[in-house]
């Protein structure tokens, strides 16, 4: 018997301890949810203000941002306590306000997350744009270079053929008297001089093209290292492009060849410039940026919605007693589909027949609805909010303790009366 008593006490004490720990933990989570909601609102407000301030005056953007975040939190709290059947118009108006506020917050927060998530991509795209412009120009230079060298090579081959024909006396310009006379005569010396001039010109052109190739290699090296040391290599790339353009234009002009159009590159300030928010960002839609913007507002809504289970303020001792006594006057209770205790607040048929005045208990219902301890289901019923159960349980426990305290006295009085009657 003693062992069973010890086991019972042990289990009762452990269960009480676990219940206390769980209650404390849940209470701490509810308290901790408040600063989390505030921090999420501040974070979402910052990104919303950042995007909004690029379209309107900053101080107006700040006011609108505060209004947007306040509407999200307030409507999230309010919609958690509204049932669709209770007041459809109010439910729809609160839901519409919440959706508009969240849509505005996500829309303007998207710009900031887009800038953060796409900054590296935009930088790479700018580098690729510069490289493409330079590569297209270098390809045009390479083609022009091939045409110029081919033109000079053809002229050199023709000059070499003229020298050979002049030597063997078969050149078309040689008089008939000197035809087929082999030797280094005056005609050969004339054409040989032209050939040597052409050959020297071709060698000089080839040397200058080799120097141009060095400048092109330097330019390409600077472009390849743009991601490493952006500022220095960008300036080197610009200088290298200008040097290549100047050298080739001189060579092409001297050769009588058409000069290709050089690319117009962005300045360094444009190259390193951040992203300016604009609705064009939605054309290049970023799912990651949108998800980040939506995630912050979703968590704000979710935690605010869950915070509704905690009343805005505790009830005083007199208010608790009033609410408990008035709620006891209702007779129709059931467990609804939300697993909450639901009660009918309208008069029963008997109460209507007796013209019962339910002003006091309806006052208690209205009072608890306004304080968040009750939730309206429809026109005739309400349900208990989670924070009302501990108050009712405390009152019921106090009543039970009072009854138990009175039981020994009642038993003793009955026993005394019985003894007196027997005597």
Write the layout of secondary structure elements.
Elements: H1 2-52, H2 58-80, H3 88-168, H4 186-224, H5 230-254, H6 268-272, H7 287-307, H8 317-327, E1 333-335, E2 341-344, H9 349-353, H10 359-371, E3 374-376, E4 381-384, H11 389-422
Antiparallel strand pairs: 1-2, 2-4, 3-4
Helix pairs in contact: 1-2, 1-3, 1-7, 2-3, 2-7, 3-4, 3-7, 4-5, 8-10
Summarize the structure.
The chain is mainly alpha-helical and 423 residues long. Helices cover 73% and strands 3% of the residues.
Structure, described:
- The structure is a single chain.
- By secondary structure, the chain is mainly α.
- The protein folds into 3 domains: 2-117 and 285-307, no CATH class; 121-272; 317-422, Arc Repressor Mutant, subunit A, CATH 1.10.10.
- The chain has 11 helices and 4 strands.
- The protein has helices spanning 2-52, 58-80, 88-168, 186-224, 230-254, 268-272, 287-307, 317-327, 349-353, 359-371, 389-422, and strands at 333-335, 341-344, 374-376, 381-384.
- Strands 1-2-4-3 form a 4-stranded antiparallel beta sheet.
- The longest helix is centred in the N-terminal third of the chain and has 81 residues, at 88-168.
- It is rod-shaped, with a radius of gyration of 47 Å.
- Residues 1-11 have low confidence and may be disordered.
